[in-house]
Amino acid sequence: MGIPCGLLNPDCVPGRANRYLAPHVDAVFAQWRETAAHWPDAVHVIVSGCPIRPAFAEARREDGVRRFDLNPAKKTLLVTGASQGARTINEAVVANADFLGALPDWQVLHLAGDADFETIRGAWSGSGVDVKTLAYTEFMGDALGAADLVVSRAGASTLAEITAVGRASVLFPYPFHKDRHQSENARCLERGGAALVLEDEIDPSANAPKLREALKELMSDDGRREAMAVAARRMGRPQAASMIADQILSWTAPTGLGAATRLGAPSETVQAIS
User: Taking the model in full, what pTM does it have?
Assistant: First the structure.
């Protein structure tokens, strides 16, 4: 019908539906530059980032500390498995309670998910760790703002949020997807110097020692964490939603040209906007 159409692809690796649809739309809005390699050159790929809520661009440490009643004199390890939690991450972190409890200048903000909340809260009890355990929060901008280091899954929106705020992270990509797209998302941050990536082996006895080594490395090195945070911030695109909206609105301009014509050649689009 000649109606301009754009496709949002926030994961590094496009899924089957997006691979099929991409040649039929005027542009694909991608979070990662690497995504362009998954389509023929004829597909117009615009590296726009992934739309997120404005709160992440405005996140400040003092607001997060106040929101969650944290100690402003301590550094904060944020543990999150996204909105529903991640059992293997929860188990790996709790298995390192002895190590975390021996760090008097650190505290933990643990978003455990509804399913594991009571179990994890009980596991922390008596551990000696300065920890605040929640099932979930609507204020992820504040949670990331308060964090000095994040342990997380590697979903597309989660990484867009982490990079928008600019925080060092240890990523455990979700291991059960057939195409392991979270692993590819995580590697984008790793290549950019913004994250350490650990393979989730599901077994806590395998995950916990790997996590301990990563935490030892990063929690003891303020300079390394700051360098990773700077790298993350450099990758962040907190204005992605506005940029995509502006691009879509430009397609309706009365120029007499089709949307694809106005976008220009694919290589020019990727270079100019990314």
Answer: 0.90
